[in-house]
Amino acid sequence: MSITVRYFASLREALGAQEILAHQDGVTLGELRDQLIASSDAHAAVLARGKAVRCALNQKMSSETVSIPDGAEVAFFPPVTGG
């Protein structure tokens, strides 16, 4: 299964615009965030649990308890972004 992870604002500056990831069925947004934090120092710096980061699933604001379906688009961004 694969998903597209997109980053916006300051997260995009640190991690790039997007990445395609393989993931297991039933993974939640919170679990994905934890996996990304563990994947590199850059991810850990901007997605750390102490940082205010919002997430969306298929362009809809979502909580971290939501499961990610195959082919989904996940977005991470700071709570305030510029125009």
From TrEMBL:
Protein name: Molybdopterin synthase sulfur carrier subunit
Keyword Nucleotide-binding attached: yes
SUPFAM superfamilies: MoaD/ThiS (SSF54285)
Keywords associated with the record: Nucleotide-binding
Organism: Roseateles amylovorans
Membership in a protein family: Belongs to the MoaD family.
Lineage: Bacteria, Pseudomonadati, Pseudomonadota, Betaproteobacteria, Burkholderiales
PANTHER family: MOLYBDOPTERIN SYNTHASE SULFUR CARRIER SUBUNIT (PTHR33359)
